[in-house]
Amino acid sequence: LNVFGHGVCKLLPSIINDDWPGYSLELFNYPKHYSGDLECVYIPHGVIMDRTERLARNIMGDLGDHDIVVLCVLKAGYQFCADLVERIKALSRNSDHTLPMSVNFIRLKSYVNDQSTEDLHIVGAEDLSFLTGKVSSPAAIVDTGKTMKTLLKHVEAFRPKMIKVAGLLVKRVPNSSGCLPDYVGFEIPNRFVVGYALDYNEYFRDLNHICVISESGKLKYKV
Ligand code: IMP
């Protein structure tokens, strides 16, 4: 068993400070059905894509020429996973190095409204016996780190050779579990964000920018 990597953030994430107000919604396009539901564009889609391209290069540099199993953490991680895999594929076709990948999916659920709940469920792919090679498991967001910790425990039980975690967002939260991804897109303040597949009660996954939800948006989609 040779599991390593997590717990140490190897690469410096792009840090978004607490006083970052975001961009005015007027500056970008977003679906009309969300007007009034958002406060600002926090990370525009293009910036996410550019950062993902760089993460792909870093992953390629570290894991190039190995066989990997990508484990996408649904649902919030699907967009990041798809875009990251696309970028790695592009690098593989355009360089002497290559990174053969297979892609699998796992679903974890813990959030109701904007609060993390105690019971965390793993849905589907409970049997991860296909994880014999290396794993890079992309998660969209790490808040308290509880989800990632649970996921790692579950994955480690199947004795993969190596686990690397890529997370697009890591929140600066006081009660963090200290469990950090190996590859971090952005470190962000402790604010509830939506878009780019991140949801609030299943809404906003169809928004391409990462945005801050407004108070009226929270009320409108509250369960
Ligand atoms: P953790 O277990 O507290 O680290 O939470 C991680 C999970 O909570 C993620 O996989 C998300 O599904 C969800 N989550 C945490 N913060 C946000 C947010 O700001 N927007 C949307 N989902 C979030």
UniProtKB/TrEMBL annotation:
* Positions in coiled-coil regions: none
Tell me the Gene Ontology biological-process terms attached to this UniProt entry. Answer: GMP salvage; guanine salvage; hypoxanthine metabolic process; IMP salvage
Q: Does the keyword DNA repair apply?
A: no
> Which InterPro entries would you find in this protein's record?
HGPRT, PRTase-like, PRTase_dom
List the keywords (alphabetical).
Magnesium, Metal-binding, Nucleotide-binding
This protein's GO CC annotations: cytosol
What GO MF annotations does this protein's record show? hypoxanthine phosphoribosyltransferase activity; magnesium ion binding; nucleotide binding
Keyword Metal-binding part of the UniProt annotation = yes
Q: Which family does it belong to?
A: Belongs to the purine/pyrimidine phosphoribosyltransferase family.
The protein, known as:
Phosphoribosyltransferase domain-containing protein 1
Please tell me the species this chain comes from.
Oncorhynchus tshawytscha (Chinook salmon)
Q: Which gene encodes it?
A: PRTFDC1
